[in-house]
Design goal:
- This protein is of the alpha/beta class.
- The chain has two domains: about 180 residues, Rossmann fold, CATH 3.40.50.1970; about 190 residues, Dehydroquinate synthase-like - alpha domain (Dehydroquinate synthase-like, alpha domain, Up-down Bundle), CATH 1.20.1090.10.
- The strands form three sheets. Strands 1-2-9-6-5-3-4 form a seven-stranded mixed sheet.
- α11 packs antiparallel against α12.
- It is globular, with a radius of gyration of 20 Å.
- The structure holds glycine.
- Glycine binds next to α5.
Length: about 375
C-alpha cells in the first residue's frame, strides 16, 4: 500500500504535511529532516503515555536518532487526568531541564490526551516551539491531530485552557491502530462518520459502502477514511481557524448530547465516540422535527452507525438532567442550547433550541427508540 500525503493549507499559517500509511513512523526522523520547521533542529522531545511507551516509543526514538536528532522522551500517565495544569507544569520543567530551546521540536506520540497536552505545552514553552503530531489512535488521526486545538482541563471544565497552534507535521501510521481494542476502534469510527455526514453525499455513501471493511480494519479502507477526514477537517479549519466565524462549530455535530452523556454517565463509562454516535442519532431526530430533515436521512445515518458497530446506547436519563448538563457545556450561549442540525447529508445549520422543545424532543426520542437500547 502506498503512503498518502496531504498538504494542509490554512490562511496565515505555514502549510504542513500529513502522511498516512503503514510503517510511516519508522521514517519519522527523515520526514522531520524534510519539513522546513523541523529540518534544522538538533533536539527533539517525544512526549508519550505509559501505554504507548511500551508499544511505539522505541521505534520513534530510533527513527529520530537515525536521522541525527538528539532525542529525549517524557512519559506521562495514560488517561484524561494527564490533561491538567499540574502535568503541564511537569512537562514545562522537563522541557527546561533537557535544555530545549526555541529551535527544538516536540513530538506528541499517542492519542488525543497526549496530543492536546504536548501541543499546549509546546505552544507555550518559550512562547512557542514546533510540535509534530504522531497520532496512534483512530480518533486522534481523524480529528484532533489536525486543526491546531490544544488544551488542558480545569476543575471548571474540559479544555478550559488552551491555544490554537497548528502542528509542523502529522505522521499517521495506521499500523499503530492494530493494537486498539474494539471500543477505541469504534470510538474513532464515530468521529469519522460524523465528518462524512457533515461533508457530502460522496463521503457518506463511500463510508456506507466501506463500513464492513472499516469495521474489520482493512488497511486500504482505513488509510482512505483517515485521508478523507483530514481533507474535510483541513477545509473547515481553513475557513474558520479559531472557531469564530460559525463554521468550525459544524464539527460539534452530535457533541451537544454526547457531552451531557459523558457528564451524567461519568467520563469513561462510554467511549467518546459511542456518546457522539448517540448524539448524532438524537440530532438527526431533532433535525427531522425542527428543520425538515427527511426520514430517509435519519435512517441512512442510523444504518451507517449500526454497520460501524455503534448501536444505540443502553442509556437514558431524565430529560431535565440532560438539559442542565447541556447548558453547562461551554459552547451554550444566551441560555439556549445550540445544536448542529442536518437538513440532509452535507447541509448543516446551527440552531438555538428552546428548553421546552429540547425536553419534548428528548422524551420523544427516548420513547421512540426504547426497543433499540440494550440490543448490542
Ligand atoms: N474537534 C473539533 C475541532 O477541532 O474543532
Amino acid at each position: 500500500m502506498q503512503n498518502l500525503r496531504i498538504v494542509v493549507s490554512i490562511p496565515g499559517e505555514a502549510d504542513y504535511d500529513v502522511r498516512i500509511g503503514q510503517e510511516v513512523l519508522a521514517g519519522l526522523g527523515e520526514q522531520l529532516r524534510a519539513c522546513p520547521a523541523t529540518a534544522k533542529a538538533s533536539q527533539v522531545l517525544v512526549i508519550t503515555d505509559a501505554n504507548v511507551e511500551r508499544l511505539y516509543l522505541p521505534q520513534a526514538m530510533e527513527a529520530l536518532r537515525n536521522a541525527g536528532y538528539e532525542a529525549a522522551n517524557l512519559v506521562v500517565p495514560a488517561g484524561e487526568d494527564s490533561k491538567s495544569l499540574d502535568v503541564a507544569g511537569e512537562v514545562w520543567n522537563a522541557m527546561a531541564s533537557v535544555g530545549l530551546t526555541r529551535d527544538s521540536v516536540v513530538v506528541a506520540l499517542g492519542g488525543g490526551v497526549v496530543g492536546d497536552l504536548a501541543g499546549f505545552t509546546a505552544s507555550t514553552f518559550m512562547r512557542g516551539i514546533p510540535v509534530v503530531q504522531a497520532p496512534t489512535t483512530l480518533l486522534s488521526m481523524v480529528d484532533s491531530s489536525v486543526g491546531g486545538k490544544t488544551a488542558v482541563n480545569l476543575e471548571a471544565g474540559k479544555n478550559m485552557v488552551g491555544t490554537f497552534c497548528q502542528p509542523a507535521y502529522v505522521c499517521a501510521d495506521i499500523s499503530t491502530l492494530n493494537t486498539l481494542d474494539e471500543r477505541e476502534w469504534t470510538c474513532g469510527l464515530a468521529e469519522a462518520a460524523k465528518s462524512a455526514v457533515i461533508d457530502s453525499d460522496e463521503f457518506f455513501f463511500w463510508m456506507t459502502d466501506q463500513a464492513q471493511d472499516l469495521f474489520a480494519r482493512k488497511p486500504e479502507a482505513v488509510a482512505e477514511v483517515v485521508k478523507r477526514c483530514v481533507v474535510f477537517k483541513a477545509g473547515v479549519v481553513a475557513e474558520d481557524k479559531t472557531e469564530s466565524k460559525g463554521v468550525r462549530e459544524c464539527l460539534n455535530y452530535g457533541h451537544t448530547l454526547a457531552h451531557a452523556i459523558e457528564t451524567l454517565a461519568g467520563y469513561g463509562t462510554f467511549s467518546h465516540g459511542a456518546a457522539v454516535a448517540e448524539g448524532m442519532r438524537f440530532a438527526a431526530y431533532l433535525s427531522e422535527r425542527l428543520i425538515g430533515a427527511e426520514p430517509d436521512f435519519v435512517q441512512a445515518q442510523s444504518a451507517l452507525l449500526n454497520a460501524l458497530g455503534l448501536p444505540y446506547l443502553d442509556w437514558t436519563a431524565d430529560p431535565h438532567d440532560i438539559l442542565v448538563a447541556m447548558k453547562h457545556d461551554k459552547k451554550a450561549r444566551a441560555g439556549k442550547v445550540r445544536f448542529v442540525l442536518m437538513r440532509d447529508v452535507g447541509a448543516w445549520d446551527l440552531v438555538a433550541v428552546d428548553d421546552a422543545d429540547v425536553l419534548d424532543a428528548l422524551a420523544g426520542y427516548f420513547s421512540q427508540t426504547a426497543d433499540e437500547r440494550g440490543r448490542a
